[in-house]
């Protein structure tokens, strides 16, 4: 059920308590979640392997930023259009298509790497294609979630989706580091290609009611309605602005990790895998807090507070020179990031009518994932001049400043 701004800000405390695992009682959500855990494990392995491959071939953080920029451009161009598509077509079939394409791309990347023919431009082109596909995948997947669970379980379900991605980041990067050290990056790419079979299998097994046919409305009208929603609901702009600031300035630490591991912490592929795994531990910690938040008030305050915490943690992380100190900071960053993104995602979904959720999730995808990728380019360029640690700390400080500005406005949304 669609919840307008005034309803969001006056949510009832009398609703039954929702635990972090409550959404798993629904078979369809459970199938999708399980498949995503397997697939995302492979995705994280490929993420680590790509960063390691670029860093090994170029020895420059600038190229990591360029890689992120090639992923950002398709998101920025196609995200809103992809969101409209998620509102017009069968979301399950769309997800089957996107996962199949990404599986083929991972296999191609593996073949190029194992034969020694891989070049930087190959990585950039495949990354851009995957980003284009993700532009359609993310809004379809996110907008499907409210239809798989009860409305009061949406925050818990969104958080579990974060666990499926970032939680898989606990063992995915570590396993990727071991595989890279043993047989090279191609091994990670092959495993990732195979992992998509889990999501495809889950989508096939799901039993969903037939979706009502979408009226023959022109695509331009769909896009216009999405813009109109932003004008009518002031909260949507505020939520998306918060996510954009958080993603652009705070989250590029993820893409800069290979250079930070090599230049600052002086660790190998196994150490890089552990560093990439630490935020996933934080995601699990965040999921344990969701039960108290799902039925309560203050999702806007949680978003602002988590944003502030992330900024402080990123600023400190950039200053550290110790692997031992870096790990708990990364766990804290993962916790804060998950709480912020899950709260923003839930607020956007509950402020948007069901028939338009795909379009708003397209915008959410653009600012969350496109912002992160686009923000990595200036951070990479700055890191090449002043050092990766200082560049990350500067981004963290900017997030802190923006959080202080946004928090008083966010706390009114519950």
Main attributes?
single chain, 414 residues, mainly alpha, Growth Hormone, Chain: A, globular
User: Could you describe the largest sheet, including whether it forms a barrel?
Assistant: none
Q: Give the domain tally.
A: 1
Mean pLDDT value = 80
How much of the sequence lies in strands comes to: under 5%
Count of DSSP-assigned helices: 15
CATH topology: Growth Hormone, Chain: A
Structure class = mainly alpha
Q: CA-to-CA gap between the ends? A: 16 Å
Topology summary:
Layout: H1 5-8, H2 27-58, H3 61-88, H4 91-114, H5 120-144, H6 154-183, H7 185-205, H8 219-232, H9 234-250, H10 257-265, H11 269-294, H12 299-319, H13 323-350, H14 357-386, H15 388-410
Structure description:
This protein is an all-alpha fold and 414 residues long. The chain has one domain (5-207, 219-410): MFS general substrate transporter like domains (Growth Hormone, Chain: A, Up-down Bundle). It has 15 helices and no strands. Helix 9 packs antiparallel against helix 13. The longest helix has 32 residues, at 27-58. It is globular and about 50 Å long. The model is unreliable at 1-14 (pLDDT under 50).
């Amino acid at each position: 059920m669609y919840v307008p701004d005034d309803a969001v800000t006056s949510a009832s405390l009398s609703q039954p308590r929702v635990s972090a695992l409550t959404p798993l009682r629904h078979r369809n959500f459970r199938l999708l979640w399980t498949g995503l855990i397997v697939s995302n494990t492979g995705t994280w392995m490929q993420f680590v392997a790509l960063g390691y491959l670029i860093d090994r071939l170029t020895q420059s953080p600038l190229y990591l930023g360029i890689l992120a920029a090639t992923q950002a451009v398709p998101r920025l161009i196609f995200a809103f259009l992809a969101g409209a598509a998620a509102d017009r077509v069968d979301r399950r079939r769309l997800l089957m298509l996107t996962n199949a394409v990404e599986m083929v791309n991972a296999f191609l990347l593996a073949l190029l790497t194992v034969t020694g023919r891989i070049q930087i431009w190959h990585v950039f082109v495949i990354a851009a294609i995957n980003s284009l596909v993700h532009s359609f995948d993310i809004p379809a997947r996110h907008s499907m979630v409210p239809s798989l669970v009860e409305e009061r379980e949406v925050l818990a379900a969104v958080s579990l989706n974060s666990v499926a991605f970032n939680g898989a980041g606990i063992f995915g990067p570590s396993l990727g580091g071991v595989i890279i050290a043993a047989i090279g990056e191609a091994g990670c790419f092959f495993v990732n290609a195979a992992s998509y079979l889990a999501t495809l299998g889950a989508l096939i097994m799901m039993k969903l009611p037939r979706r009502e046919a979408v009226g023959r409305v022109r695509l331009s009208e769909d896009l216009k309605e999405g813009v109109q929603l932003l004008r009518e609901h002031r909260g949507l702009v505020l939520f998306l602005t918060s996510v954009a600031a958080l993603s652009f300035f705070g989250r590029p630490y993820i893409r800069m990790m290979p250079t930070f591991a090599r230049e600052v912490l002086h660790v190998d592929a196994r150490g890089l895998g552990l560093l990439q795994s630490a935020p996933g531990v934080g995601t699990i910690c965040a999921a344990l807090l969701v039960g108290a938040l799902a039925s309560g008030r203050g999702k806007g305050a949680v978003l602002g507070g988590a944003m502030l915490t992330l900024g402080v943690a990123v600023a400190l992380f950039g200053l550290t020179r110790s692997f031992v100190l870096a790990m708990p900071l990364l766990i804290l960053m993962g916790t804060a990031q998950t709480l912020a993104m899950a709260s923003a995602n839930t607020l956007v979904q509950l402020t948007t009518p069901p028939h338009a959720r795909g379009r708003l999730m397209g915008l959410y995808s653009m600012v969350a994932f496109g912002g992160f990728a686009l923000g990595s380019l200036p951070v990479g360029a700055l890191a090449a001049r002043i050092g990766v640690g200082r560049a990350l700390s500067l981004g963290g400080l900017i997030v802190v400043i923006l959080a202080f500005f946004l928090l008083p406005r966010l706390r009114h949304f519950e």
